[in-house]
Amino acid sequence: MEVTCECGAIHFTTPTPSPLALYLCHCTECRKQSSSAFGTSAIFPAAGLFPLSADLSSKLSLWTRPTSEGRTLDCYFCSECGVRVMHRAREADGTERDTVRVKGGLVRGLVWEGAIHIYTRSAVVDVPDGVERWDGAPGEVAGRKPVGEGK
After folding, report:
1. What is the CA radius of gyration of the chain?
2. Maximum CA pair distance of the chain?
3. Locate the CENP-V/GFA domain: which residues (predicted)?
């Protein structure tokens, strides 16, 4: 899949032909970074994209912030137009996660059907009935259970 930022300075192909998952995140941080009601993240394996090529790295700016789960989030932006392109989490010990979250609006041909709504406890818009939804983090986090469809 092709990924491009608003100005076109950032351009790359995703490591796999489709994402592993697609999240619509309603947390307050994603609402702030997207300047909207929720953020979208297409989850891809980091291998094949990281380490970043010298060309791509030279066009990205990095901002880092702590997460509520004790991780660090590396947030990559286009240095020209300022659009957030992707983010990647690091564990408390500095180990990078094996996935990267590419901002969904930048992925050409992304299929939105089946997107998983996460952090719905912070939602400011109605979450549609019949979709997979999580009150907080998605099921990949041990001990979390879905809050049920349409709740």
Report:
1. 15
2. 45
3. 1-135
